[in-house]
Amino acid sequence: MRPxxxxxxxxxxxxxxxxxxxxxxxxxxxxIVFERRARYDATExxxxxxxxxxxxxxxxxxxxxxxxxxxxxxxxxxxxxRMIHEHDxxxxxxxxxxxxxxxxxxxxxxxxNRKLYEIATRRHGVEYQFDSPCIGIDAGSEQPIxxxxxxxxxxxxxxxxxxxxxxxxxxxxxxxxGALAVSDExxxxxxxxxxxxxxxxxxxxxxxxxxxxxxxxxYMLIALPNTDGSFTATLFLPLDGRTSFASIGADDVSAFFCxxxxxxxxxxxxxxEEYADNPTGLLGTIRCSTWTFDNRYLxxxxxxxxxxxxxxxxxxxxxxxxxxxxxLLDAHGDDFQPAFEAFERSRRADVLAIADMALENYAExxxxxxxxxxxxxxxxxxxxxxxxxxxxxxxxxxxxxHPEISYAEARRRGFEQDRTLSKLxxxxxxxxxxxxxxxxxxxxxx
Length: 446
Ligand SMILES: Cc1cc2nc3c(=O)[nH]c(=O)nc-3n(C[C@H](O)[C@H](O)[C@H](O)COP(=O)(O)OP(=O)(O)OC[C@H]3O[C@@H](n4cnc5c(N)ncnc54)[C@H](O)[C@@H]3O)c2cc1C
Fold this sequence. Notes:
This protein is an alpha/beta fold. 39% of the residues lie in helices and 22% in strands. The protein contains 15 helices and 19 strands. The protein binds flavin-adenine dinucleotide.
């Protein structure tokens, strides 16, 4: 069948859906995107979704693959490391990597959605149908059902991409049919977004080129910069228990912040109102037994594998999904069936690995970054990377700055690195005291 004759439905015009539509259009297909929301240019950002996101090398590589990163780049702000805000308000910058190029980039979700939509529609003529949620799959024809302003219709698609996010309706329908099994592991912690306004004199109130973290053991506050001089702060807290969203009401929140995040209080101009008004988002990990159905459906992005946000990789992984599929369509001459099978085979171990690393990173961000031992191990890891660049790249750097190393491989090497660093740091308290002859042997074995 010639590509342009295929009917391709992309369910969900979010980050992965729009990038996928661009990629398919570049291959000569004519996908139609069905999106639940109203037109992007007519709507405010969805409340309760993260307002800004950290874009890293994997996401950039995927955007670059279809030649559009140059248009995204003006929207980003670089962040070179984590700025740790201690209880006593002292600041400590922990760099993400040791090279100036090793940075991640804050970007507005709305601006990125709009830009991708603009490229898809204006440059590639992709059709979007807004206000058109998928509400299920027809049991007889096994086709998606779309509802637009009360009018319900069943599609007649040859290929269906489910990129409708963590709460995917397609995934839900396929689960009901018994076509796949889903595990939805809830974290027990939620998040709430709060705004930090630009400084009264203009410009940023705190260093814009860092991801700010107030780590407090079982919970934390973070803040990422926006291009207008503001920051979006996010409070991550248990849902229940002694210090939790359930126990801290809007009346208590100022006292809680004064005690726990004293240097943030002056930055959060409408703390009580926002704490009361903004929704508490839930966090979890979705794992699916399969992402394909009937050689026709493929789940991608959060619909297939939503993860907790602590490695800043959900969107990056979703973009990498699109790039991987594009490579496989190259390899299989635009034949979707073998490409879908190969996609599932090649991607499964990677998304399971990043899901686990994202969970592990929560403990790192809210707790371990305060530990002097953590900073020391990071220094030793950087030194090993300097001395043995071909054999040692710290796990965080592999995930964030090395798209050529898969998530699964980064996790595997990360376990070995942990053992190596434990041995090398056991009898040393300064980098110069580390036994680098032993290091060479250990790293050689890794
Ligand atoms: C608090 C928080 C912070 C995060 N920070 C980061 C970060 O720093 N870096 C990072 O890489 N990732 C981050 N993420 C993860 C990131 O948001 C997701 O991984 C990313 O949005 C996934 O893209 P997607 O296109 O698969 O899903 P979405 O972006 O969720 O897009 C899904 C689209 O489908 C539409 N839709 C939903 N249901 C239907 C339906 N039934 N029919 C039709 N359309 C539908 C939605 O309206 C939406 O447009 C964060 C997530 C959270 C919650």
